[in-house]
Design a protein that fits this description.
- It contains 9 helices and 10 strands.
- By secondary structure, it is α/β, with parallel strands linked by helices.
- It has a 6-stranded mixed β-sheet, sandwiched between helices. Strands 2-1-4-5 form a 4-stranded antiparallel β-sheet, with helices on one face.
- A hairpin with a 2-residue loop joins strand 9 and strand 10.
- Helix 3 runs parallel beside helix 5.
């Protein structure tokens, strides 16, 4: 599905990633965990084509895509929900969704086909808010709309950057439920999280980042040992 090999990237003269390597297999959920400033969001931006890479490869389904622009990466099945969501606040919920739906039509042969009715079933509250301006909605509701918009691009790899940050536990639980259903449909996921509990609940394994590097790989079955380890305190703080 996705292989990142020896990736280095940054902003201006600052190198924020150094020789990062990760892998995501088909129908797998992989967490990227680490404290603020660890390089998690920079890795997301590099995978999605929002910043250029300086070294290394990004391979999607056997094709090196590190030189492709961001919109082309979306067309080959990579969708992202960024931490600040990037919704059009003055537009209605329906208009935000329709913009993504129009882009999603490019992927006619996508294995996962989701339409507006499908995302309304995933997040039922939107049925009564379709004509509401996004700016009038709560942070949790906006996060659900951002996820819905990404799904309408028909991705086979969905990246979510800090989806639980600043949200009430009830909202996080709803998002967790949707994540589980996406995995059941065969979608691969990259979940970027500071919260180890949320990451453990929603991923098969994880990479721990610190200062722009991967410092630990938590394999299947290794979550319990990792949660008790000194790394949680050293790199993430108490969870």
């Amino acid at each position: 599905m996705l292989v990142v090999e020896g990736l280095s990237a940054g902003y201006g003269e600052v190198n924020a990633l150094s020789e990062v390597s990760i892998e995501v297999r088909h129908n797998e959920s992989v967490a990227i965990v680490g404290a603020n400033g660890a390089g998690k969001s920079t890795l997301v931006n590099a995978i999605c084509g929002l910043i250029p890479t300086r070294r290394g490869r990004i391979v999607k389904d056997g094709r090196d895509i590190h030189t492709l622009p961001a919109h082309r990466r979306a067309e080959i099945g990579i969708a992202v929900v960024l931490e600040n969501r990037h919704l059009f606040g003055e537009l209605s919920v329906r208009q935000n969704l329709e913009l993504a739906l129009n882009r999603g039509r490019i992927r006619k042969s996508a294995s996962i086909q989701l339409g507006i009715q499908d995302v309304l079933e995933l997040f039922p509250f939107m049925n009564e808010r379709l004509n509401s301006a996004v700016d009038l909605l709560s942070g949790g509701e906006q996060q659900m709309i951002a996820i819905s918009r990404a799904l309408l691009l028909k991705p086979d790899l969905l990246i979510m950057d800090e989806p639980s940050t600043g949200l009430a536990p009830k909202v996080v639980k709803a998002i967790v439920s949707v994540v589980a259903s996406l995995r059941g449909r065969g979608m691969s996921l990259i979940l970027v999280e500071q919260n180890v509990a949320v990451a453990e609940q929603n991923s098969d394994r994880a990479y721990v980042m610190s200062l722009g590097r991967v410092v630990k790989h938590v394999d299947r079955g290794g979550w319990s040992e990792f949660a008790r380890s000194e790394l949680v305190t050293a790199y993430l703080g108490r969870q």
